[in-house]
Amino acid sequence: MTLKFYGYQYSTASQLVGVVLHEKGIPFEYSSIDLRKHEHKTLEFLARQPFGQVPYIDDDGFILYESQVICRYLESKYPNQRTKLIPTDPKQRALFEQAASIEMTNFDYYGAPAIFEVLFKKVDELTKLLAAKLDVYEQILSKQRYLAGDELTLADLSHIPVGTLLPVAGIDVIQERPNVLRWFNGLTDRGSWKKVKEGLKNTA
């Protein structure tokens, strides 16, 4: 049975799952949940995703939500299909987990709220904190191609949805750092992200 993917085009979490599905070449049926119409708060939706958030997947009756968990599940189920996103070597896996933690606690933690604050409240404190974190990224990426080493992992891809919104909000923290910019441009130049940008849609 084809995997079913329920998301919203402008949700950064949905975009990340879309990127991973394309990176892995996993066919899926996409159903758009319109957050503006509160479709994520209907009883039918809440029966599958009790927190009323997108995305979630239905893999032949197996319901799973939380974007990072979905991505790890897809890699675990299809480890040898196209792009390998999580290393199996213990040391390389540890470096991946380190990079994934960095993304969650140092990039998304400041980046997502900073976008909201700048777009809606015009507050720049979070932007300054994010810039300081990216100074460390600049050092790391001056020595290696990706955050966990010289191979692409899910930790790198996780930066794309929020990272692409930063310049939209007028936050130029990526563009100001050459190694971060080189790394991020490489991520957004991948075919998987280009497909997600064109719109989340069925591939099955």
TrEMBL record:
Transmembrane segments: none annotated. Residues 89-204 form the GST C-terminal domain. Keywords: Transferase. It catalyses: RX + glutathione = an S-substituted glutathione + a halide anion + H(+). One of its GO terms (cellular component) is cytoplasm. It is an enzyme of class 2 (transferase). GO terms for molecular function: glutathione binding; glutathione transferase activity. Its EC number is 2.5.1.18. Residues 1-82 form the GST N-terminal domain. Coiled coil: none annotated. PROSITE patterns: GST_CTER, GST_NTER. GO terms for biological process: glutathione metabolic process. InterPro entries: Glutathione-S-Trfase_C-like (IPR010987), Glutathione-S-Trfase_C_sf (IPR036282), Glutathione_S-Trfase (IPR040079), Glutathione_S-Trfase_N (IPR004045), GST_C (IPR004046), Thioredoxin-like_sf (IPR036249). It comes from the Eukaryota. The keyword Ion transport does not apply. This is glutathione transferase. It comes from Macrolepiota fuliginosa MF-IS2. The lineage of its organism: Eukaryota, Fungi, Dikarya, Basidiomycota, Agaricomycotina.
